[in-house]
Every structure is written in structure tokens, then in C-alpha cells.
Amino acid sequence: xxERTLATVxxxxxxxDWNELRSAIxxxxxxxxxxxxxxxxxxxxxxxxxxxxxxxxxxxxxxLDPDELHSLIQDLREPEARHLLxxxxxxxxTYFLGELPGQVTQRLLNLLGHEDLKEARGLLGYxxxxxxxxxxxxxxxxxxxxxxxxxLAHIRRRGSDSETISTLYVTDDGxxxxxxxxxxxxxxxxxxxxxxxxxxxxxxxxxxxxDREHALAxxxxxxxxxxxxxxxxxxxxGIVTSDDMLDVAQTEATEDFHRTAAVSPIAGRYxxxxxxxxxxxxxxxxxxxxxxxxxxxxxxxxxEETLSATIALVxxxxxxxDSGGNIGSQAATxxxxxxxxxxxxxxxxxxxxxxxxxxxxxxxxxMGAAAGLLGLYRGGYxxxxxVGLSMALLAVTANLVGAILPFVFTRIRVDPAVASSPxxxxxxDTLGLLIYFTVARYILG
Amino acid sequence: xxERTLATVxxxxxxxDWNELRSAIxxxxxxxxxxxxxxxxxxxxxxxxxxxxxxxxxxxxxxLDPDELHSLIQDLREPEARHLLxxxxxxxxTYFLGELPGQVTQRLLNLLGHEDLKEARGLLGYxxxxxxxxxxxxxxxxxxxxxxxxxLAHIRRRGSDSETISTLYVTDDGxxxxxxxxxxxxxxxxxxxxxxxxxxxxxxxxxxxxDREHALAxxxxxxxxxxxxxxxxxxxxGIVTSDDMLDVAQTEATEDFHRTAAVSPIAGRYxxxxxxxxxxxxxxxxxxxxxxxxxxxxxxxxxEETLSATIALVxxxxxxxDSGGNIGSQAATxxxxxxxxxxxxxxxxxxxxxxxxxxxxxxxxxMGAAAGLLGLYRGGYxxxxxVGLSMALLAVTANLVGAILPFVFTRIRVDPAVASSPxxxxxxDTLGLLIYFTVARYILG
Lengths: 445, 445
Known about the structure:
The structure is a homodimer of 445-residue chains.
Chain A: H1 2-14, H2 18-25, H3 30-39, H4 42-51, H5 54-61, H6 66-75, H7 78-87, H8 90-99, H9 102-109, H10 114-124, E1 141-142, H11 148-158, E2 167-171, E3 177-182, H12 183-188, H13 195-198, E4 206-207, H14 212-222, E5 226-230, E6 236-241, H15 242-260, H16 275-302, H17 304-309, H18 317-340, H19 349-411, H20 421-444
Parallel strand pairs in A: 1-2, 4-5
Antiparallel strand pairs in A: 2-3, 5-6
């Protein structure tokens, strides 16, 4: 059914039949309407938006990307833009305003009423990676002395604006967080019971200045739908909800993916990034890695004589270089992910390295045997011994380097993902050549 | 305060003072109690568990890893084990039972009562990556004809078992999902209003056989806290909640991280994986990549003459090999992540490749210039030209290969993350050497 509605709406837009569209479009889920707004030409966007019922319009707009939303607002008349902005939920509004250039943000802030303006200014004041930046002040707070009946009446008054009503927050008169109240318990309790009697006198919480990754970890650890955010005195400032956290988890994972491939994190999505931004995020790392690579050339220079004497050694250079890089990348990626997800703690470094030494040894035996066979085929026993032994030694070494670097970076408070596959590969190369030529010189004389 | 309690509890365990422990331990958050159980020696684990109030025990156990929980259950007496298992929530129980060896699962299933057993068997029947495997049948369903008053009475009866009460599910007598009902609307409505009047006559849903990654995408797109799961006839089977989805997002990201480093996904966490498993997940890829690497040796063999004539060419082999791999890995990782998160659709391949051609060109200019300078320093103008030109051509080529492979894999229904950095690096090497030696032969003669 939905597929059919989608097709109908598309054809109505194509036919620019705004009246029919008005009744058809509201049968679609909000994200689909938003996608249609985003895909529509600049000329039609404001027209389609105006067909939406007033109470739905801001909800739909909340699903647009900041750029798309901004472009829509530019096409609206001032009262319409004012209405849209004031009806966005505070967390969505902060995200939107925070992604725009400073000047644009200022101009849009001027469209807000006094209360909303104060709130938006406050939220935008938190640093971009902090919990404060993504919290919403739309929660329901109750007082410990209230009765269950009063709580229910309060929910009826305030509930429609709140991001969640499954959990209510109990504060004292100074808004200090005292505990939480599960709505379930309210519904199950006697009307005359007080909040103190049914609340949980403790609440897992985070501070507004905390990193949002910390909030994510706390939410996961405690399996929470919503997490209260307090200031340093324990005063309740807002809440963050698990659906927003899903976005955080996704964004943080993307940043880590990019970092492990030596790409500086891109703000926003790949499809929205321009060529200039993409080049800027990649070139620095690539040029830096060229410098690291000079070590490899240095090793070759030192062993030039060995190399000229046995040109067959050159054949196995790519094999050794690549295998070392691959083994190191595998180890590094597993460490990085373990550290980021909290599975591996810094204190476990010794135990982990011991484990990886054994793993590297096993990989080295198998890889050495395989490389030795190739060497035998290409150049006889001596070369087989050189290539096989080098590969085995390299496997152990590269594996340890890949395993240790993420711990080292974490220790010196650098993101462990900086131990990217390209960096590990480049470092492992130098090691590989060093081992290879040393073994060759020793065995081949 | 919590820190102090934690220290107290630890010292009480050390002193084996179970009576004092009983009153102190309940002041801790559940995940902390679980961690303490996990960290305790095998001898103490059951004893600590027995200090927990009955109504809390299963909730704490739900935070344990499957292995830890299994070891605890083995130490309990049969009635205790039976009580624990029946009081786990169905989704937690399915996860636990699904992670154990088949025989153990069977033995534990025998501890369940008839109803729980039927439910557990049903849930375990879904494939491991499916939504069915992680859903819970603990939701609240209401009928369209009920009044708001009846709904509230129903919640009071059933609410304490339900995973969420913020959303109620409206079904017909055959349990077919008709729509959803926001608890907010129930609380705000007149007691005599019927469900039909206040419900949303539409519900975003997934099928039990759908992949859990699909459910994750749907939940993110619609910003939902809970998502109903139906069978192919639209009959409501259960729900999945966003806190469980956070775990899915984390697990899926970890699997992708491992794949992009050419490590087959490890079931469970790194710290729990044994050496044998770690080697098994890595060695196959490494040996396979050795085979791919034979192409590089082949290229060197073909150009042996060129190489012997100008041994200086060897110096820049690691530089070209590495840079090509790095550029290709960057591009591939960005494509993979874009495809996985839904930012990049398969249909956008042409536009994306065009964009990456430009990016590769820009990177090629900069990298070519840098490499050319190194060539000049090392061997004069001719070598500078060879190295610089090769690097520029390689940058464009490797970038396109890295960008196109994830699309190709997706097209042939292989996980795009199989276009791992090691694979791209190894393929880019062969290309790099081919370009390098061809350019060298042409320019140096």
C-alpha cells in the first residue's frame, strides 16, 4: 500500500497538483516525505512543504539534512521560517544550527522567540563532541512530595512536548536530580502514593561536558532508553535518548573507519563532501606516509651491494612488504576496535601482547612455509631459506608492531585509530626489508 | 558515593562476609554487580549470587556474558538455575542459549517450564542474523475497540513484564498488527475514548526473517525506540528495542572493521577469542593474498631487464607500492562505509567514480610532485620524471580501483567490506609495478 502511495505522491508532484497532494502526502511516513522534499527541485520544495498540515511540517523538516533544511528555510517566507524553527525539537534545532556557518546560524537565531533563543544559545555553547550539544530539555520532571495523581496530571499537561515519558526525573526545588521514576511504577501505584515511595533513589547520569562517546558507553552498559544529563553540581539540564545515540554510534564508527584508512574524519556524509574537502582529508596523511617511507629507501640503500649481487631478491620484495603490512593491519585493527568498544583495557597490554606473540608465531610458521616454497621454486634452497625465514620473522615482528601501536597511542592520549592500516603497512615495510636483507646477507654471504 | 560502595562491596567479598554484603551490594547499579560476579573466583560466584534479593537476581545475571552466565548456572543448584533461567527476559535468554554449544542449550532448555520452553524454541528457530532472534514477545497489545480506561487497566495488569510501555501495539483478534498507540496519547485522552480514535493507523514494521541490519536501518530512519516484528502475514510476533539495537550496531561495526582488515569476523569479543580461533580467522586471508601477490612477482619477472639496467629503480619500489595501497585503501574504506550506512546507493556508482576520478587526479598531482622531487634528489631528471609520472598515474588508478571494488562486490551480493585494505593494497601493488616499469622502459629506454 505504501509503495502505491509513494508512486501517487511522486506523480502528483510531477503534475504539480498541490491540492490532491495535500491529502495523499500525509499517508506517507515522515522520513519518506522528508526524502521527497530533499529530492524535489528547489522550485518545488517550498510548495510541497506548504501542502503539509501545520502540526506535521516541523516534524517532517526534522528528518532533513542540515543543508537541505537550510535551503528550504531560505525559500520560505519569514513567518513560515520562524514557525518551522520554533517547532523543531531543541536537540534537532541545536544539531541543525551547529552544522551551519556561524553567520547563517546568527541570522536564524534572530528568528527565534526569547525563550527558544536562550535555550538554543545555551545548547550551542557546549563543545561539538559533548553530551550537552545533543541533549534536549524536553523531559518531565516531578518532585518527591507529589502524589501519583499529581504526577499523572502533570504528564497530561506536559507530556506532549517530552521526548520520553517512560522515565520521569525526580528533582528537588533547585532542580538537583534525586532519582528516576519509571512510568510503569506510576501506573501500577495507588493514586495517593507519593513519588518518594515509588521512585528509584538513584540515577545513572552523565555531565553535559562529558564526551558523547562516554554517554554512549554508559547507555550501553546500563541498557537505558534515556539518560539524564546534569551539570557539575548534579542539577538536571536535559536528557539524551537512545535513538539519538544510534546516530552517534554510527557517526563515531564512520570516523574510526576513516581514521584506520588514514583519512581524517569528514564532517557529514561522503555524498555531501566536495572534492576539495575529500582531497584535504587525505593528502596530508599520504604525504606524511611518503616521509615514513623514506626509511624503506634508506634500508635499500644500505643493502645495495647485497641486492646487486642477487637480483632475484627483488622478486620477493613485494611479497614480504605486503605480507608484513597485512599482518600488522590485522593485528592493529583488532586492537583498535577492542580498545574503542571497551573490550580491551590499557592495563591488559602485556597479556594481549603475549597472546599476539603466540598468534604471530603460528602465522609466521604457516606464512614462512608458503614463502619458502615459492623461493624454492624460483631460486633453489638458499633462496627458499632466505625468503621463508624472513617471512616467519617478519610475521612475528609485524604482528607485534600492529598490536602494540594502538596501546601506545591510547597511552599518550592519541586516538588509537591513528595506528591506521596505511601507517602500519608503511612501518612494517621498513622492518620487512631490514629483516629480509639482513637474513639474505647472512645466508647468501 | 558509588565509588565508596564499590570499594566496600569488594572488601566484603574479600572478607567473605555474606551477611553484610547482602545489604551493601543492592546499592550498586546492576552492571556493576554483574561485573563483580564475573570477576569473582569460581568458588565465590554462586555465594555472591545468593546474596542478591530474588527479584534482582535474574536482572543482574542478564548483564553477564554467555560464558560467565553458563559458568554461574553450573555452580547453582537445579531449582536456583531453573528460577534464574525462567526469569531472564525472552530476548536475553535467546541470546544466551544461542551462544552456547548445542548440547548445553538442550540441557538448559529442559529446565524451562512448558510455556517458556515453547517460546525459547520458537525464538531459537530464527537464523542468527535475523530480527526474530533478538525480538522479545514482551510487549503490550490492545484491541481497537477498547476504551482508554480498559487500556490503562490492561497496562496495570501486564505492564511490569513489558520491555516498553511508551508504545502499545494495536492488533485484531487474529493478532494482525493494525497500528501503534503512543502511551502519551492514552494519558491525554478521555477515559471513554476508544483505541481506534487515538491510535496511529499505520505502523513501521519489519519481518522476523529480515536481517537485523535492516531493522537497524529502519529504526534509525524513523527514529524509533521500539520496532514491531511481524510474520509474512502481518501477525505481530514481538518487538525489538533501540537499546538492543545499539549492541547490534556495535557488533556489526566490529565485524566490518575486521573484514576491512582481512580478518574473518570473530564471534564474541577479542579478549574471549583463543589463539587457535584468531589464527584461523586470519591465516586464510593472508595465504590467499600471497597468491594475489604472485602477480607482482610476475610483473617484476617481465621487466627483469629494465630493472637490471637501472638498479636505482628498486629504491622507489616500496614508495610506489605503499602509496598505491594507501590511496586505494582510503577510497575503498570510504565507499564501504558509505554503502554500509546507506549513504551511498549502488545506483550512484557512476557519479561517485567521476568524483573519485577528480579526487584521484588532485592527489596524483601532489603525490607525483613529491615523488618527482625525491627522484630528482636520488638520480637526476630522467628518474624524477619516471618516479613522478608513475606516482601520478598510480594515484588515479589505485583510487579508482579502491572506489570501484566495493560497488562490484555489492553488485554481486558479496559484503563490500571484503574489499579490505590488504586486498586493495595487494592489487594496487601489481598495478603500481606495472605502471612504474612501463613508464621506466619508455623513458629510460
